[in-house]
Design brief:
- There is one protein chain.
- This protein is an all-alpha fold.
- Helices cover 67% and strands 0% of the residues.
- The chain is built from 7 helices and no strands.
- Helix 2 crosses helix 4, helix 4 packs antiparallel against helix 5 and helix 5 runs antiparallel to helix 6.
- The termini are far apart.
- InterPro entries: RNaseH-like_sf.
Length: 126
């Protein structure tokens, strides 16, 4: 893979919440090289255009959560004064996504909204 793309593929790590998002983002960024990679590895097409579209939609829907995790886990920004504004932004972004024409990931957005709403219900009610 490194010979064709110049990069190694990031692997998701169970202990890092955002690692799947980062791995898929890196894969989508290499989409122009997928055909060359499949030829080099002597396999059929690794990912179809439909697969790439699905992953891109997933990344769009997961972006508010991924961005919030970056903020809340950051050394420079990890303090209580950031938590509630970040949660409100996430909720607003997810609500906005839920009103778009999603092909496959609407249940994901609805699940994120439900989870954030349930977990932080007391904070949102203040």
């Amino acid at each position: 893979m490194k010979a064709v793309t110049g990069k190694s593929l990031l692997r998701p790590v169970a202990t890092r919440w955002k690692s799947l998002y980062d791995s898929l983002r890196a894969l989508v960024d290499l989409r122009e090289l997928i055909y060359d990679l499949s030829v080099e590895l002597d396999i059929r097409t690794i990912l179809t255009p439909s697969d790439i579209s699905y992953i891109e939609e997933y990344l769009t829907c997961a972006k508010p959560i991924a961005d919030a995790l970056d903020i809340l886990q950051g050394v420079e920004t990890a303090f209580y004064g950031v938590l509630l504004p970040t949660l409100h932004v996430v909720k607003r972004q997810l609500n906005s996504l839920s009103r778009t024409s999603l092909q496959d990931c609407r249940p994901l957005v609805e699940g994120y909204l439900l989870s954030v709403g349930n977990r932080f219900a007391e904070d949102f009610d203040c």
